[in-house]
Design goal:
The protein is of the alpha/beta class and about 260 residues long. The protein is built from nine helices and seven strands; from the N terminus they run βαβαβαβααβαβαααβ. About 45% of the residues are buried.
Length: about 260
């Protein structure tokens, strides 16, 4: 099977982003990697190359508007085309609705929502030329908003709507766009959160890790590699007729239809 050419993965320094970049190295000839941590990006790049693809790293902060131009133009200068854009970067603070400041709201939208929006707009012409694909990552909080993580839910819901808007234009322009809605995935960030949260609530980290899946009604946490596999499918030739979809992968946490 002939491999596709060039994919861009943001948030590629850790977690789902790193797993996705490594997985796409099996399907693409080159993978461009973006995140803020240059040293962690270097580790991902080494893994991508070991998996069989050329790598290109951009250590930048996608909250800054100019970063979209730097990443997209840098990828085009290096490889001459873009076939897939996978927007994964973005951590939104889990702070109570009545405590979260305007600055914290703005910071949460700056990376996950506006960073992805700017990148997709900036890459659109190249994606039109290659008849490429875009994926934006949301999260299951969008479907079950709670006061304790209102920003997460709100921003994730906005990403689903944004992806659908891009998909509508993509039908005309030949660009496939979908969003992925993961549930509780065990990443380094989630583990770090549990290590701080558990002592504050009078329990061990092991107890806290066990408690969440039980309360959520799922058998276990998801793994980054499982979401990476879904990402790879969504930008594959086999999935070309799938567009404008919000694809949920959460172990059955959201029970609604």
């Amino acid at each position: 099977m002939q491999r596709q050419s060039v994919a861009i993965v943001t948030g590629a320094s850790q977690g789902i982003g790193r797993a996705t970049a490594i997985r796409l190295a099996r399907d693409f000839e080159a993978v461009a990697l973006a995140a803020r941590q240059a040293d962690e990006l270097t580790k991902t790049a080494a893994a991508v190359e070991s998996a069989g693809a050329e790598s290109f790293t951009c250590a930048l902060d996608l909250r800054e508007p100019r970063s979209a131009d730097v990443l997209i133009q840098g990828t085009l200068d290096r490889f001459g085309r873009i076939d897939a854009l996978i927007n994964i970067a973005g951590a939104v603070p889990q702070i109570d609705l009545f405590e979260m400041t305007d600055a914290q709201w703005e910071d949460g939208t700056a990376l996950k929502l506006h960073g992805a929006r700017r990148l997709t707009v900036r890459a659109w012409d190249a994606l039109k030329a290659s008849r490429g694909a875009v994926v934006l990552i949301s999260g299951s909080a969008a479907l079950d908003p709670k006061p304790a993580f209102a920003a997460v839910a709100t921003i994730n819901a906005a990403i689903i709507a944004l992806a659908k808007a891009f998909a509508e234009q993509g039908i005309k322009d030949g660009v496939q766009v979908n969003s992925v809605v993961p549930g509780a995935v065990m990443t380094g960030r989630r583990r770090s959160f549990m290590e701080h949260w558990a002592p504050e609530h009078g329990m061990s980290v092991a107890e806290a890790m066990k408690q969440f899946p039980e309360k959520a009604g799922i058998a276990r946490y998801g793994q980054p590699e499982e979401i990476a596999g879904l990402m790879a499918y969504l930008v594959s030739q086999e999935a070309r007729w799938l567009t404008g979809a919000s694809v949920r992968m959460d172990g059955g946490e959201i029970k609604g239809i």
